[in-house]
Design brief:
- By secondary structure, the protein is α/β, with parallel strands linked by helices.
- The protein has 2 domains: about 5-210, Rossmann fold, CATH 3.40.50; about 235-305, formyl-coa transferase, domain 3.
- It is built from 13 helices and 8 strands.
- The strands form 2 sheets. Strands 3-2-1-4-5-6 form a 6-stranded parallel sheet, sandwiched between helices. Strands 7-8 form a two-stranded antiparallel ribbon.
- The chain is elongated, with a radius of gyration of 23 Å.
């Protein structure tokens, strides 16, 4: 088969939509199926002037570029033929339907593999479809906690009274969507060669846990278990307040730190020996952040960019 990959997106929210968006960004022909009441993401902000409008949701618009749309109640008995036609058209089916609903809709592995042997299916759910929590619902906050990420949030001593929190936005869903898109693309390439598709069962909890892999070498090399409050090895790291809005800044490499210092005009404080290397900046991170904040606070965010 030649031509762009054909992708059918079912479900709602963020994870499946983001996976399909990434495939569309790279040239796939993506068709998104929405229920008559619209994708739940249409009710997520931000909205211009805080005026809630399903046609102007910033989240929905960001997730659904490079797609065509179809309105279809896939659970309605009379619409099964239309759904089957769409699935038969697709090379890749992306969905985030809960396991039991997926079975009711005929989107489970055994049904799809029998009816569409060449189809690649990507299923993204909070806990996968085979584990002990497979039928549990999961929000972004629940997945962040179940995967271990919330254990480190907030990661500073400034809010010691706060409970474990999720990070901003929908990062667990978007990380899982990224991994799912890559897995689906690789599997679709193999399916085009072999003529045999596959079913990808992606657990958001599993993927979030895998993103914390830095804890393994920290323990291996330093004998330390990462805790909620810990010294960061990457300094500066954090949200800084510009004149008009907050920005996030991190220097991963020494070269990035040196370029930041040059951008700030090579201030005298940056020449001190305690800020010369990563260990020194980590030990004096509060001072680094204070000086960097002093610089950023004099600028508008867009001018910094």
């Amino acid at each position: 088969m030649s031509g762009p990959l054909r992708v059918l997106e079912l479900g709602g929210g963020v994870s499946a939509a983001y996976a399909a968006k990434l495939l569309g960004d790279h040239g796939a022909d993506v068709v998104k199926v929405e229920p008559p009441k619209g994708d739940p993401a249409r009710r997520l902000g931000p909205f211009p002037n805080a005026d809630v409008d399903p046609e102007k949701s910033g989240t929905f618009l960001a997730l659904n570029v490079n797609k065509r749309g179809v309105c279809l109640d896939i659970a309605a008995p009379g619409k099964r033929r239309e759904l089957d036609q769409l699935i038969g058209w697709a090379d890749i089916l992306v969905h985030n339907e809960p396991r039991l609903r997926a079975v009711e809709l005929g989107l489970d592995p055994s049904t799809l593999e029998q009816a569409y042997p060449q189809l690649v299916t990507l299923s993204i759910t909070p806990f996968g479809i085979s584990g002990p929590y497979r039928d549990y619902r999961g929000t972004e906050l629940i997945v962040a906690n179940a995967g271990g990420w919330a254990n480190f949030c907030p990661g500073t001593h400034r809010e010691p009274e706060f409970p474990p929190l999720k990070v901003f936005g929908h990062q667990c869903a978007m990380m899982s969507g990224t991994a799912g898109a890559m897995a689906a693309l690789a599997t679709a390439r193999q399916a085009r060669r072999s003529g045999v598709g596959d079913y990808i069962d992606l657990s958001e909890q599993d993927y979030v846990a895998s993103a914390l892999e830095a804890g393994v070498p920290v323990y291996s090399y330093r004998g330390a278990v990462l805790k909620r409050f810990h010294e960061r090895g990457l300094i500066p790291w954090g949200i800084f307040q510009a004149k008009d809005k907050p920005i996030f800044l991190v220097c991963v490499e020494q070269d990035q730190w040196e370029r930041l210092v040059a951008f700030m005009g090579n201030p005298d404080w940056a020449a001190l020996d305690v800020f010369a290397d990563v260990p020194g900046r980590a030990e004096n991170q509060d001072l680094v952040h204070q000086f960097v904040q002093g610089f950023i606070g004099e600028w508008n965010a867009w001018d910094l960019y």
